[in-house]
């Protein structure tokens, strides 16, 4: 057995201890992001804390979410649904409900590809007239191990300046609109912003960030899921002002289209340009995904952060995070970096 495999086994055994901790003796953690990246982080964090809040982007305009957003004028529910599913427990109740809300209808009519959870969330929004109250109710129904909040109270449009979006004009910079389009652009994203330019943050999300012991940003689509949180002024102010420690979790590989050719350190440089006043404490990366450790350390230092390298990828070679290994990495970071919180 290789040394990496031995280390993976030790880390997996370490995570088995985490579930035995008392609920009141755990850190308050807020995780920011959207889509599959946030789901990966939440599936790991729920293993090590019972005080977990997800703050989710609301700029999605594709698929079922985009159709509901356009037809009903609601927040796009898809990333919120995915976060709720990720917070479901591993018992029969949790896994059954996770599958139900993720289920998509297959038909020749208007219901085709709509997710059950999207419809449930939107129905409760219409019934209760309150985004947070409705999401809390869905969370109780699912037995979710944490809370899910939208980052803004209004649906946002993501816009990006992209060089070479039109392959026939590789040197031109165009404004590309819509999260789905930005995520798949063949060009090089220069910067992103949201419309409206000064969107209101959800007060509960701001309060959670200010009250947290740790804030986790990433992994996820860099320009369409990670950076948008920094474009909501009240939320960015909270991230700057909070006494919480902040860890940025890097992706395992560049995302085709959106961050093609990006090195790990370039991800940090882009984030720093969008939020120059934001300081971080730790940058977490998979040890096998960092070809130039010195350059990454330099980029992290410019953000005030130290680099933690750990095996967090699935051992089968697929570029997805392993929930148990990522949980072990987060737990070690929470224990080893900065002040010792009340959960210790």
3D architecture notes:
This protein is an alpha/beta fold and 344 residues long. It has 14 helices and ten strands. A seven-stranded parallel beta sheet has the order 3-2-1-7-8-9-10, sandwiched between helices. The chain has a three-stranded antiparallel beta sheet with strand order 5-4-6. Helix 2 (35-45) links the parallel strand 1 and strand 2. Helix 4 runs antiparallel to helix 5. Mean pLDDT is 89; it is low at 10-24 and 340-344.
Topology of helices and strands:
Elements: H1 3-18, E1 28-33, H2 35-45, E2 51-56, H3 63-72, H4 78-86, H5 92-102, H6 116-128, H7 131-142, E3 147-150, E4 157-163, E5 173-177, H8 179-183, E6 188-195, H9 203-211, E7 214-217, H10 222-226, H11 233-241, E8 245-249, H12 264-274, E9 282-286, H13 293-302, E10 306-310, H14 323-336
Parallel strand pairs: 1-2, 1-7, 2-3, 7-8, 8-9, 9-10
Antiparallel strand pairs: 4-5, 4-6
Task: Offer a concise description of the structure.
This protein is of the alpha/beta class.
Give the tags.
344 residues, alpha/beta, three-stranded antiparallel β-sheet, 16% strand, disordered C terminus
């Amino acid at each position: 057995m290789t040394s990496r495999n031995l280390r993976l086994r030790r880390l997996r055994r370490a995570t088995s201890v985490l579930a035995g901790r008392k609920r009141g003796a755990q850190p308050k953690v807020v995780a920011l992001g959207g889509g599959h990246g946030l789901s990966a982080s939440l599936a790991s964090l729920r293993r090590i804390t019972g005080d977990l809040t997800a703050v989710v982007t609301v700029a999605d305009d594709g698929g079922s979410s985009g159709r509901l957003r356009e037809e009903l004028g609601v927040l796009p529910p898809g990333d919120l649904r995915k976060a709720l599913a990720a917070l479901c427990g591993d018992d029969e109740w949790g896994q059954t409900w996770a599958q139900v809300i993720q289920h998509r209808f297959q038909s020749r009519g208007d219901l085709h590809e709509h997710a059950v959870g999207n419809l449930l969330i939107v129905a409760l929004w219409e019934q209760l007239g309150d985004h947070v109250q409705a999401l809390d109710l869905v969370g109780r129904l699912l037995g979710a191990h944490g809370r899910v909040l939208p980052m803004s109270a209004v649906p946002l449009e993501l816009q990006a300046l992209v060089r070479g979006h039109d392959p026939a004009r590789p040197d031109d910079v165009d404004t590309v609109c819509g999260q789905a389009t930005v995520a798949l652009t063949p060009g090089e994203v220069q910067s992103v912003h949201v419309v409206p330019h000064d969107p209101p943050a959800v007060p509960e999300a701001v309060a959670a960030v200010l009250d947290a012991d740790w804030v986790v940003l990433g992994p996820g689509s860099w320009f369409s899921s990670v950076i948008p949180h920094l474009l909501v002024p009240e939320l960015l102010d909270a991230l700057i002002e909070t006494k919480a420690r902040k860890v940025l979790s890097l992706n395992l590989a560049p995302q085709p289209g959106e961050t093609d050719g990006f090195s790990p350190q370039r991800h940090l440089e882009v984030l720093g340009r969008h939020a120059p006043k934001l300081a971080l404490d730790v940058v977490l990366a998979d040890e096998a995904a960092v070809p130039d450790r010195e350059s990454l350390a330099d980029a992290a230092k410019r953000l005030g952060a130290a680099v933690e390298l750990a095996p967090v990828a699935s051992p089968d070679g697929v570029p997805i995070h392993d929930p148990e290994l990522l949980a072990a990495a987060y737990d070690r970071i929470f224990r080893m970096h900065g002040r010792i919180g009340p959960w210790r």
